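User: Please look over both lines:
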Amino acid sequence: MKYPPSLVALIRELSRLPGIGPKSAQRLAFHLFEQPREDIERLSGALLDAKRDLHTCPVCFNITDADRCDVCSDPSRDQAMICVVEEPGDVIAIERSGEFQGLYHVLHGVISPMNGVGPDRLYIKALLPRLNTATEVILATGTTVEGEATALYLQRLLEPLGVNLSRIAYGLPVGGALEYADEVTLGRALSGRQQLNSARPVPPVPGKVRQSQERGDDDDNGGVTVPAQ
């Protein structure tokens, strides 16, 4: 049985969305077909309005519908601290934590030679002029191979400029049990531990965790050396 051409076109367009495969696109298409016409018109109107009104912030490249995003236009934010993230969604995630009061810089991707994405495809050059007023840059890219490679590239690029660099910590999720943590996550939690008092300096991590880091056989980051914390 062949689907009507209009249904085939709808399934094809839906399957182009990230995370939507052919089966999911087919289910969505049938779901949309069953909805009232006014709901479909409201959805299509919202899509058109978003495409017309939304653009990237000229300062941090987050998504906004104003001249500058809410964070960049907020005078109470710490202007000396910039958190570098991969995507606009990462800004929302960090903002939900309520722990960061600085500014952001959105790269809109990661370095991925396999996919033909180099540093010139990201908003990296636009970060450099912002360092004139910044004292610390937090590299908050993901822990994927591409995320680690991007953080390493930024570290090597920014270190000669004299700005303080830091990398988001790795560790165990809140409420997580040690027995369920993989060895890479547990090893990073140990190497990135925080000192609770100042009685004596924290010694290096002993045992296999340190040996593994020295050999560079961390399978999770594909051999990319993680910048020192």
Q: What stands out?
A: The first helix runs from residue 5 to 14. The longest strand covers residues 78-85. The helical segments are 5-14, 22-34, 37-53, 88-97, 145-158, 183-191, 208-215.
